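Quick log. Single chain, no ligands specified.
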Amino acid sequence: MLEIIQHGSVRELRLARAPVNALNTELISALDAAIELAETEAAAGASLRALVISGNPKLFSAGLDLREITGPTETARTLVLAFSQLQLRLARASLPLIAAITGHSPAGGAVIAILCDHRIMAKGAARIGLNEVQVGLYPGETIFRCYERILGTAKAANFLTRGAMLTADEALAAGLVDELVEPEQVIARAIAIGQEIAALPPETYRKTRALVRADLVRIIEHPNESLASLMKDGWITAETRAQMAKLLR
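-> predicted structure:
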């Protein structure tokens, strides 16, 4: 479900839940725990300087598991709570995070990438974006603010309300991703960036990174919408369940 691969001072956390890396509660919790463990090891003196989050060839992550979202209310609530905790973990992470976007990355997959420090994406057919509105989900203000932080208000508003899935070239032009490389080079390039970071003066890098991510941490730590209201009015609604039922047929 989650493969952990060490590359010297860089650790790769590879999503490996067949067939499409759908983010169920178990996978989300495993990724959260792996990040926490890496931070604990780094704080204890391990020579670990960066984390790469990667996926399968052609597909980074299909987003939240639709079967859990459309399951019993408590199952959906547990999933959303776990994903909220993961977002907080990513935002607060003491180790730099590089997203190796190996393929398609809709919705929850895009959220993970957006919360990383750097995003490397495969050239070609892969698409990325917050397409929640297309599947009947209200993304919420916190996700919009994270999107806005990277893209600017006009682009974020345009893309989010349409549920736009951007091609790799469009994502690069919009600033959603930092680099495009050949599909087979995505993970290698992400690891190389991690190694470049590892070569920087650590304390100066830490302070500078904290400076540029301080606004992101504030967005995640102090949401204007409660999780309860988001669940009631945006996730567990008749419209949401009807739309998702169509997708599961």
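DSSP finds eleven helices and ten strands in the chain.
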